[in-house]
Amino acid sequence: MFSLKKSVNTTMGIATESARSASLLRHLPPVLRARDFRLYLEGNRRVVDLWQDNGGAILGHTPPAVLRELKNSAERGLSAPLHHFTEHRFIKALSKLFPGKAIRVYSDNASLYRALATAGIPADTSVIDPSVSDTSSAKQTHLSVSDTTSATSDTTGTTNANDTLVSDTASANDTHLFRWRPFLPFACPVGAVLLPILPWPLSPVALVYDEPLALPPSDYIPPLILSATTRAVYDLIAAASKRQEVCHIPSGSLWQQRGVYCSLTRRLSSADYERLFLRFLDAGFLLPPDQDQPLILPTGLSHGEAAKLDAALLMQSDTSALAESTHQP
Length: 329
Prior knowledge:
7 helices, Aspartate Aminotransferase, domain 1, four-stranded mixed beta sheet
């Protein structure tokens, strides 16, 4: 049985998650610019982004090749949702991550869930995020989702960072919805529908699945968006083979680590999580505005930033101290 702890429900959950996120993000001063994993705020402040738009900015906020692609497409006036050959290029790029899978692309979450409803998948089906949910109880077999790194598995169960694991114990008739996240192996039942987190904040929404699930055709997406997202996918594939080692969280922390992702070891009340969010912000770090989303460890931290992050993670292990937080806007 797969654990659904901390999973986020679909249609109704989107509105709730959005409201919670907006509420906490209002504590963040205006962002004047962003570079790599740092946000530069009004008042000459700088914070390290541990949210990264829930993984949309996992390659940083200023990926140069993506920005060049965006500029080139904008100069050609390709901003309307019209039929264009960039759709084929985008599907081809995703197929390198998910070989042998069928792929649909939709403009937003509302369109995606309408498509799932058309295929008979109920609106209250839970979306399991392996960065915050335990899916280890299933017997696992190996499936590579990257052609840049060969799929390997040793007796310890170690796998490459871009590999997906498939459970051979689940019925092919069962439908599970999973978030797919870069650099994270996870247990995926046969017949599961994957909802990839794509590495650019303005990316469209993709569905990755096995035939014969009957889904409606893809939406038309502006070529400007598709060309930039295609470049981001290829950048992600390239990054898989040269991803720098990220820091490991100190023992005794309130957080547990899965690769580059960290989640809370226990759920906090809304008030306690808000205090936690504010304490990290005071320390110079932006936490996810929703505790159902993972903290993402960035690369390229200075020694000073890494030391401050360790101190913040350890400080938060004493949850009784959360009530003592005094945030000054």
